[in-house]
Amino acid sequence: MKFVLGVDAGGTSTRAMAVAADGTVLGTGRAGGANPNSHPPEEAVANLAAAIRAAHPEPAGASACVIGMAGTAKLTDPVVAALFDRTWRALGLDPVVILTDAEVAFASATDAPDGTVLIAGTGSIAGRIRGHRMVATEGGYGWLLGDEGSGFWLGREAVRATLAALGRDAELGPLATAVLAEAGVDPADRRLAWRRLITVANAEAPIRLARFAPLVAVADPAAADIVERAADLLVATALATRDPGEDSPIVLVGSVLGEDTRVGARVRAKLAGLDVRASSDGVLGAAWLAAVEAFGEDLARRPG
Questions:
Q1: Which residues, if any, are the signal sequence (predicted)?
Q2: Does 11 fall in a domain?
Q3: Is residue 186 within 8 Å of 202, Cβ to Cβ?
Q4: Which of 28, 71, 173, 244 is the most buried if burial means most Cβ atoms within 10 Å?
Q5: In this structure, are 83 and 167 located in the same domain?
């Protein structure tokens, strides 16, 4: 039986799926994270191999394999690339197509070859998709240079708003109260609390500011302002990748853009009138793209 393999290799977990030519799911596999930027490359390829073997006992029989991977930039290192190539040979996989996690996320939500993918989790980035491949990006520069509207950005703005309230000796609203509680700072002495919050925020890796992001869900004018600014920034990032009058889908990905989040709701409202969709599951997109590689777009069937 002809089949393909799709893999979604993230920083936390790796999931693989074997799918027959008619879309029937033959098996699934799961293993630890396989992002070679956040895991030692040897560990990343071991987890990839484990997930693939769990999805199908004879991966060498696959007509194609598509891997959507966070951290693809690491494969520009010849040593790392050689390690991955040896893994594919050991599994008997040929061809293997490695795509970004953004590309498989887009494909998980739509069959359309062209469109936009907007990702906002801890960081943020938008990509222009043409022919199922990302051909241009906006944002994605990391916490120091960008990531506007991301979980990091939301958390940083929540802390900044709290520091501003403490510095002005203003009344502490629900957002500031929640930020101080999350930071373990006693608000009784305002000046001490101001200094202590600065110390706590700077004592950790900057990206850890993302832990304050969920607090913007509280009913508070300062939180509402942060949410609105985040939504404006994310929408601008997405629209910057689109041609004038383009009507292709916009696929939203990531925890910040969930339908049940305030930022996600505002982004959807600001994109009203466009074809906005949510990514369902990256491994489904990877498996479908593998079917397109093996059987052609007209014959590829969605896993199900």
A1: none
A2: yes
A3: no
A4: 71
A5: no
